[in-house]
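// run 5 | inverse folding | seed 20
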């Protein structure tokens, strides 16, 4: 049940209202030129709206008997292969001729318009003289200069291989403008408009509508060239453009294209004005609200099971649209509404309905109503669940818990990493601080509902009424983040769940069970403890705040680094860190002595026999250290044998 991320003509978002409005606007006064912008964030559904517009235009044209021609152009497909400006102009003319067979009889008009397009191609390839937002179309003098240049190429013996091709181009350019014709830029633009208008008349087209998609995916140069081509048609009668793009990306492209704007002109303001002059009527796609998101998730999952063409599914879409007319009243699709629409098919999609009910609220809270993010999230969620099933621990992975964790992974990555490191290093896979955060937020919500007047101040600061000096540094950090607090309030509560199966299935991004990964936020502390004696002295207070399991993990990592260095004749990096760590956590004394006893005594330097007075303080630990020293007297290196004579510790200090 993988959800395809393609544009669709099946409207699950109730965007047909936007498409219908645009179609009505296009057809209201078809003789007037018009440019409409369909704006929205990445993944908001712009391409699908263009599909609906194309369908709506075709339906209305068939009903009214009007000859309305709708052409589509995707600038992203031409990026890197051909000049986007020429590609759009030539694509419009070619599409017009292809779909209007009667133009075969208008040979002169067709020939004239293509000669003018060839002229623009030559101008582009022979010195960068193509028209821009400021310069317009090349002048007659420029064309003559191009022709002379190309003739010089033919006379060059090194260019003989392309002689016929160049001669053909020169003939075309020479025939386009006679040397005596000294036309200026406005006249040239007028000539192009006139030629194109004549082509429309001979094609008997009532209106030409061009749909331009994916401009916000293009590089700035491609986006600007496409927009400049639109400018060329901007005042042509019976011609309309619908441009789907994210305004912010287009504004960025304009700023990149015109980097040397006067200091008195804000580049951002200029970019906005540039777009506003080109787009006469902007439509912005609204983000989905909570109710709309939950309905969308249900339709996606049911549609994936039944197929978009299924009659029962189409009935469910009709039910959903009724609710989407007034989402602030209608509410999400409940089981009874789904059962009424699907009838006998309800049992087939029971799993999808359950999943929708479980994660719909979570997605509504986390994805901020972006359709593409919802689809990608659902696909990743489903694939991870299937992976857990295939590995044999699917029963340990609950979809609502996985969904909530994935929301943090996607939108609060640092919080997710902190939760993962704590859960992975915990003996039971739980994150104690997360459980506290979820409980505290429940208490705040209860208090605010029962005593709203007394907690007005707390309402403006979610952690004001529950601040606790005993909170861990991590919990304090989380409580100061509104985004983290809001995420913690999303059901279900997961702080008391064993999160290790969920982290294991998320290993496609990171292994959370390696030594360094388990340490997570403790890795920085461990790194500091590998420093010099002077550097580690100031860490004692920070180390005391570590929970015992955290201190144990840091201790093990440092011991591993010492062993891994394989240099014991001189004091390895990390020994001073072990001294201060064990001093802060005396329960580690026996672990320290176990570690010292495991070192190869014959290779040990004198460092191992001194400096432990601050960390080995218990009577039993002192006795064990003295026993180690006795053993080193016989098995140690020559220098160590001498050093241990003065090494034994006594209770109360060395």
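// decoded
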């Amino acid at each position: 049940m993988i959800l395809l991320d393609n544009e669709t003509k099946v409207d699950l978002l109730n965007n047909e209202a936007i498409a219908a409005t645009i179609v009505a606007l296009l057809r209201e006064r078809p003789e007037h030129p018009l440019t409409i912008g369909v704006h929205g964030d990445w993944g908001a559904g712009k391409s699908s709206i263009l599909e609906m517009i194309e369908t709506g235009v075709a339906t209305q044209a068939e009903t009214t008997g009007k000859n309305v021609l709708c052409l589509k152009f995707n600038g992203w497909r031409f990026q890197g292969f051909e000049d986007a400006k020429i590609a759009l102009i030539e694509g419009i003319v070619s599409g017009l001729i292809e779909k209007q067979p009667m133009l075969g009889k208008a040979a002169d008009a067709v020939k004239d318009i293509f000669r003018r397009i060839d002229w623009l191609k030559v101008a582009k390839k022979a010195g960068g003289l193509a028209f821009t937002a400021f310069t317009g179309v090349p002048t007659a003098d420029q064309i003559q200069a191009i022709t002379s240049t190309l003739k010089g190429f033919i006379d060059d013996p090194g260019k003989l291989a392309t002689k016929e091709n160049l001669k053909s181009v020169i003939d075309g350019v020479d025939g386009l403008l006679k040397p005596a014709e000294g036309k200026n830029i406005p006249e040239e633009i007028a000539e192009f408009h006139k030629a194109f208008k004549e082509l429309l008349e001979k094609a008997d087209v009532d209106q030409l509508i061009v749909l331009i998609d994916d401009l916000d995916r293009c590089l700035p140069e491609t986006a600007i060239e496409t927009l400049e081509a639109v400018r060329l048609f901007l005042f042509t009668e019976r011609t309309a453009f619908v441009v789907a793009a994210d305004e912010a990306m287009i504004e960025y492209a304009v700023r990149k294209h015109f980097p040397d704007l006067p200091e008195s002109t804000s580049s951002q303001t200029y970019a906005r004005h540039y777009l506003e002059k080109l787009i006469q009527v902007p439509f912005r796609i609204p983000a989905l609200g909570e109710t709309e998101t939950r309905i969308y998730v249900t339709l996606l999952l049911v549609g994936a099971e039944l197929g978009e063409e299924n009659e029962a599914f189409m009935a469910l879409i009709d039910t959903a649209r009724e609710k989407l007319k007034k989402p602030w009243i209608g509410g999400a699709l409940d089981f009874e509404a789904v059962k009424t629409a699907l009838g006998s098919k309800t049992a087939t999609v029971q799993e999808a309905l359950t999943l929708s009910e479980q994660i719909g609220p979570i997605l509504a809270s986390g994805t901020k109503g972006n359709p593409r993010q919802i689809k990608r999230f659902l696909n990743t969620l489903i694939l991870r669940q299937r992976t857990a099933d295939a590995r044999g621990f699917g029963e340990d992975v609950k979809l609502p818990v996985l969904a909530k964790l994935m929301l943090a992974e996607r939108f609060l990555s640092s919080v997710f990493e902190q939760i993962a490191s704590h859960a992975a290093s915990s003996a039971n896979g739980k994150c104690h601080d997360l459980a506290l955060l979820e409980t505290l937020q429940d208490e705040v919500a209860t208090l605010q509902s029962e005593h709203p007047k007394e907690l007005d101040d707390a309402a403006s600061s979610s952690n004001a009424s529950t601040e606790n000096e005993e909170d861990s540094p991590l919990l304090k950090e989380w409580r100061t983040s509104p985004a983290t607090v809001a995420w913690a309030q999303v059901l279900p509560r997961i702080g008391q769940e064993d999160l290790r199966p969920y982290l294991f299935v998320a290993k496609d991004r990171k292994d959370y069970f390696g030594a360094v990964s388990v340490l997570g936020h403790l890795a920085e502390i461990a790194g500091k403890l590998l420093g010099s004696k002077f550097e580690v002295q100031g860490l004692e207070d920070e180390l005391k705040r570590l929970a015992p399991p955290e201190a144990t993990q840091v201790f093990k990592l440092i011991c591993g680094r010492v062993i891994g260095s394989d240099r014991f004749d001189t004091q390895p990096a990390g020994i001073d860190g072990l001294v201060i760590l064990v001093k802060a956590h005396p329960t580690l004394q026996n672990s320290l002595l176990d570690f010292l006893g495991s070192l190869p005594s014959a290779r040990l330097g004198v460092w191992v026999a001194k400096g432990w007075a601050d960390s080995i303080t218990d009577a039993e630990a002192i006795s064990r250290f003295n026993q180690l020293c006795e053993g080193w007297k016989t098995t140690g290196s020559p220098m160590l044998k001498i050093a241990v004579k003065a090494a034994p510790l006594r209770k109360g200090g060395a």
